[in-house]
Amino acid sequence: MHILSQLIKEDMRPALGVTEPGAIALAVATARCLIKGDVEKVYLKLNSGMYKNAFTCGIPGSNEVGNYHAAALGAVAADPKKGLECLEGIEETEAKKAKQLVEQGKIVVDMSEISSRIFIEAKVIGEDSQATVTIRDTHTNIVKITENGKVIYVKKQPVVNQEEDGHLIHRYTLEQLYDYANTVSLDEIQFIKEAYDLNWELLLEGINSNKTTFARYLLEANGGEIISNDEQKTASLFCNAAIEARVIGLSKPAMSITGSGAHGIIATMPLYASYRVNKYSEEALLRATALSYLICMYIKEYSGKLSAFCGCAIAAGTGMACGLVNLRGGDKENMVMTINNMASSITGMICDGGNQGCTMKGVVAVDAAYSSVNMAMNGVYIYNAHGINGATPEETMKNMGMIASPGMVATEKTIVEILEDKK
């Protein structure tokens, strides 16, 4: 298997609800399994990105939101064997018990640092035992477990070759990613179809739920049809009904990329809409999606997994825009123009956590992508000399990521302070 195929396959993960509450519940549930008796207290430490992203986020199986309730559900009922789907199947009695833990002050949540590097430390105390689980860098990457003060697990860290420091994706150029996407064996990327199976079911969940508002509005705007002759309106519906379903905590999982369900939705669903409306071949869809994922990963690995920057719109939106160019038969130069247009328009959009606003950000991302592609396919684009655009597409994508980290560290602090003031 080509190393880029492997990279995509390893990054794609089903996630129920927003990934941050799922990761919090996973950490707490893993620790809970090591204690005896009932849970007496949970102490949770989160980096700013994790803290912010789960702050008002809907949680599957519950009518509650946020860090405290995610941790409480982890202490009561989450199944750590299910990874980011650990909150699947939560029963009403379990949700009520979790709410009681929060109301009784048994869940303590603190922010550890302003950082785009994922960090979760969950300490669960029982009647006569305790356990601590630490997650770092990715949502399911457990790096340390202690039981009653004794270290029982430490993940061996890979030795980094200083000459090869950095993410593997950054060793490739846009041209190489483009060539890979259009020449890789089709059999090798068949696994991508699973993303469409999951995200389609999530879209339908959003459309059919009486809890959603954006989904119903976008459906009406599309003439009351899930698939109409208007490609862009269909794309916005496909994308944002799924995002809304996810952020309000409905019961279907999304296929995440770069640790985010919303990234995975934006990187795929507008392409799926284009495929359905225009009747492109399945092969064209899979190749466009592979490219979309890789561009998203390229930008996201510069910005950090969780930052003050809306990677859903910016990284995944830019990847999706390049996928649209590919579907339309555009070439690498059209993609360079598209990246410049995206970089000069929505870069800098803030992330204020996983919440209903993600849906509106998704609407903006789809609109920006379609405008950027339409212009680029007609030779209209922001020249390299302007703004943060670089001399090469690789430089431009790097600059987009750097706006977030280190560029928006102070913004992250301000966002968290605003959220704290709302308590």
Describe this structure in words.
This protein is of the alpha+beta class and 423 residues long. It has helices spanning 3-11, 19-32, 48-53, 67-76, 92-103, 174-183, 193-208, 214-221, 231-247, 261-278, 282-303, 311-327, 332-343, 357-376, 393-404, 409-421, and strands at 13-16, 41-47, 107-113, 119-125, 130-136, 142-147, 150-154, 253-256. Helix 6 (174-183) runs antiparallel to helix 11, helix 7 (193-208) crosses helix 9 (231-247) and helix 10 (261-278) runs parallel beside helix 12. It starts with a helix and ends with a helix.
Task: Summarize the structure in short.
By secondary structure, this protein is an alpha+beta fold. It has helices spanning 3-11, 19-32, 48-53, 67-76, 92-103, 174-183, 193-208, 214-221, 231-247, 261-278, 282-303, 311-327, 332-343, 357-376, 393-404, 409-421, and strands at 13-16, 41-47, 107-113, 119-125, 130-136, 142-147, 150-154, 253-256.
